[in-house]
């Protein structure tokens, strides 16, 4: 399908937990997201990908009700209008991990995670009866229980990202939204976080929607991929149906090859630049030396 052509929307899986349709968002009177949609289902990971400025984060933030839409419909699995709920009611249904959160100062890990219970607290900040158990579960699920009493400002970037995620899990929602959660993390923590996201869907039945820049990461973790360009959804479906060389090359404006990793069976992508055929300098020197030695 050519970019800009009308997209036939894939049917959402049965029992989808959240459905956003007709999402149009404008900044200063200019539409930046056009009639976009997003369906999230229990036990499945949906990944939003696309070039910078394609509207991925804007769409996710609109679904999370942090960004005002010019037009949109947001429906939960029981038919509830998501925009009609109070902030407290909505936060019991949907949790969002935003990017670029500041490092908490003067708070322990447990303190940070306990903030995730705010939708359940009564007046005067009193914790709900299930709050302690929910926090303990969230600490355990994210592997930061042993850090519970440590100051959050002393954690590494990867550890702190897990703590923020634990706070989202403490909300005990059926839907979890994550905006570029692997940004600025070392490779190890990127892999561990993606594994955890996959576990949340597989083992806990959470409907996960996540924005990622890395196409290989998207292919590794996603059940479903939504590809955006210029604020429009141009493809929606399983990874092998969305991440095709032709579509990616046109969308990103650079030649992209797609292959299957023989060890994992996952899709792998490779952007081809002008110097992709340039040989390693050491290899060239070694080959030249061998030729000289055979002719002498």
Q: In words, what does this structure look like?
A:
By secondary structure, the chain is of the alpha/beta class. It has a domain of 199 residues: P-loop containing nucleotide triphosphate hydrolases (Rossmann fold, 3-Layer(aba) Sandwich). It is 32% helix and 23% strand. The chain is built from 10 helices and 11 strands. The strands form 3 sheets. It has a 6-stranded mixed sheet with strand order 5-6-7-3-8-9, with helices on both faces. Strands 2-1-4 form a 3-stranded antiparallel sheet, covered by helices on one side. The N terminus is likely disordered. This is ABC transporter ATP-binding protein.
Compact summary:
The protein is an alpha/beta fold and 296 residues long. It is built from ten helices and eleven strands. It has a domain of 199 residues: Rossmann fold (3-Layer(aba) Sandwich).
- Please state roughly what percent of the residues sit in beta strands, choosing from under 5%, 5-15%, 15-25%, 25-35%, 35-45% or over 45%: 15-25%
> CATH topology of one domain, which one?
Rossmann fold
Radius of gyration: 22 Å
Q: Describe the largest sheet.
A: 6 strands, mixed
Count of alpha/pi helices: 10
| N-to-C series of helices and strands | EEEHEHEHHHEHEHEEHHEEH
CATH class of one domain: Alpha Beta
Helical residue percent band: 25-40%
User: Quick one: overall form?
Assistant: globular
**What is the CATH homologous superfamily assignment of one domain?**
P-loop containing nucleotide triphosphate hydrolases
User: What would you call the structural class?
Assistant: alpha/beta
What is the terminal separation in angstroms?
58 Å
Give the tally of β-strands.
Answer: 11
- Please state how the strands of the largest beta sheet are arranged side by side: 5-6-7-3-8-9
| Low-confidence spans | 1-6
- Average pLDDT taken over every residue: 89
CATH architecture field of one domain: 3-Layer(aba) Sandwich
């Amino acid at each position: 399908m050519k970019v800009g052509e009308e997209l036939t929307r894939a049917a959402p899986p049965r029992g989808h937990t959240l459905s956003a349709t007709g999402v149009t968002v404008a900044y200063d009177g200019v539409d930046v997201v056009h009639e976009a949609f997003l369906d999230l289902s229990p036990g499945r990971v949906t990944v939003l990908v696309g070039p910078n400025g394609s509207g991925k984060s804007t769409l996710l933030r609109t679904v999370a009700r942090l960004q005002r839409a010019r037009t949109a419909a947001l429906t939960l699995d029981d038919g509830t209008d998501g925009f009609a709920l109070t902030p407290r009611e909505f936060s019991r249904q949907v949790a969002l991990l935003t990017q670029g959160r500041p490092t908490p100062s003067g708070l322990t890990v447990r303190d940070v995670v306990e903030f995730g219970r705010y939708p359940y607290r009564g007046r005067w900040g009193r914790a709900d009866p299930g709050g302690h158990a929910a926090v303990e579960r969230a600490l355990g699920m994210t592997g930061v229980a042993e850090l519970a009493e440590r100051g959050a400002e002393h954690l590494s970037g990867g550890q702190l990202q897990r703590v923020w995620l634990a706070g989202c899990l403490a909300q005990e929602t059926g839907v979890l939204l994550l905006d570029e959660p692997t940004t600025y993390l070392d490779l190890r923590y990127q892999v561990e976080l993606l594994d955890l996201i996959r576990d949340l869907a597989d083992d806990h039945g959470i409907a996960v929607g996540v924005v990622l820049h890395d196409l290989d990461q998207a292919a590794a973790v996603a059940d479903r991929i939504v590809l955006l360009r210029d604020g429009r959804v141009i493809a929606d479906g399983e990874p092998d149906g969305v991440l095709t060389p032709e579509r990616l090359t046109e969308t990103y404006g650079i030649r992209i090859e797609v292959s299957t990793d023989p060890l994992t069976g996952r899709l792998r992508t490779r952007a081809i630049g002008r110097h992709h055929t340039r040989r390693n300098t050491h290899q060239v020197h070694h080959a030249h030396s061998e030729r000289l030695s055979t002719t002498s």
